[in-house]
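Re: weekly structure request thread

Next one in the queue (148 aa):
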Amino acid sequence: MPQLSMHTPVGDLTVSEDDGHIVAIDWGWGRDQLATPLLERAREQIEAYFDGGLRQFDLPLAPCGTTFQRQVWQQMCAIPFGGTLTYGEIAQNIGGSARSVGTACGANPIPVVIPCHRVLAANGLGGYSGDGGVETKVALLRLEGALL
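Done, posted below.
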């Protein structure tokens, strides 16, 4: 599976491609590096996002997950740059509970691009499964100018 790693303000990220789609973004530096046109495009967009010049990603995504998880991830992708929703609001939109939405957020295989950082608890930030935990979530929200 082709992978390409990059340095970002929230740590090193490795983007993985399979069959012409982005399937994962992992925290840390990948062992094997292969710069395909799609991975180069993903790197350019991620760098533009962190530089403040990109508000919406335009990449073919194929995250592996359950039907419910994919529904949650679609809802997250619909949250505009700088916006937020709560776990409960997403649950009201698609069913399930705030807890099940939080679990799906934690299982997001393509963080940053699928913006799980834009989903908050009703009474605060909630968690973040990415490297650096809630500090990384806060950094991403601040980058976007989201009100905390």
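Strands lie at 3-6, 13-18, 21-27, 85-86, 119-120. The chain has a mean pLDDT of 95.
Next request, please.
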